[in-house]
Amino acid sequence: MERIKIIIADDSDFVRDGMNIIIGMDDEFEVLGLAADGRSAVALAREQCADVILMDIQMPLMDGIEATEIIVRENLGKVLILTTFDDDDLVVRAIKNGAKGYLIKNHTPEKLKQMIKSVHAGVNVLEEAVWEKITDNVKRHNGWQRSQGFDGTFFTERELEVIRAVADGLSNKEIALTLHLSEGTVKNHISVILEKSGLKHRTQVAIYYLTGKK
């Protein structure tokens, strides 16, 4: 089986070298290089052919969110944010810039490897604690009010039902069962929702619905 090619970008020598050892010892992965700042991460991604870039946020010269935007725009690999920050704005900015995952640095090596494999396989991952924080804030402050743009004039009522279900964290299969639809119909609705909203994937739809931030 072909190994998943990784670039690690973090301004901490301890974190960067530690992840290099942990990931590099696994036969399923190959670490192509290490970067201590966002600018170096972009340069390395341009030189190498990486599958997944592990990206810190707060780094010198160029932060991880700006580096993510460049890497995604130039199609240099899938970005998995790995940081100590769980600020809502950072989450939204990272996902808006094309990050496929957002994790906090508190996971076991096996959990991290699992998330890398998920991102590589095309699955978007979001830290559970971050997701709960965003949804709790909305419940507390907004009473689950629909965000700007989700007011029923832009989407059909069925599309709004699908959006709410996505925001509740349901899978396509669960949405199909809940709304008495086929999975194919759910996929079609989500495709239309993405096209109408100009968003790239379902995680962005959920965050936009919950926070009003695109």
Task: Describe the structure in brief.
This protein has 214 residues and is of the alpha/beta class. The protein contains ten helices and six strands.
Report on this model:
With 214 residues, this protein is α/β, with parallel strands linked by helices. The chain has 2 domains: 4-127, Rossmann fold, CATH 3.40.50; 146-211, Arc Repressor Mutant, subunit A, CATH 1.10.10.10. The chain is 52% helix and 14% strand. The chain has 10 helices and 6 strands. A 6-stranded parallel beta sheet has the order 2-1-3-4-5-6, with helices on both faces. Helix 4 (88-96) links the parallel strand 4 (78-83) and strand 5 (101-104). Helix 3 (64-73) packs parallel to helix 4 (88-96), helix 7 (157-167) crosses helix 10 and helix 8 packs across helix 9 (183-197). 35% of the residues are buried. Residues 138-148 have low confidence and may be disordered.
Q: Please state the average pLDDT score.
A: 80
What is the C-alpha radius of gyration, as a whole number of Å?
18 Å
- Quaternary structure: single chain
Q: Given the structure, what is the number of helices?
A: 10
Instruction: Indicate how many domains the architecture comprises.
Output: 2
What's the CATH H-level homologous superfamily of the largest domain? Response regulator
Largest sheet: 6 strands, parallel
Question: Uncertain segments of ≥5 residues (pLDDT<50)?
Answer: 138-148
Note the gap between the termini. 38 Å
User: Portion of residues in helices?
Assistant: 40-55%
Strand content: 5-15%
Secondary structural class:
alpha/beta
Count the beta strands.
Answer: 6
Question: SSE string, helix = H, strand = E?
Answer: EHEHEHEHEHEHHHHH
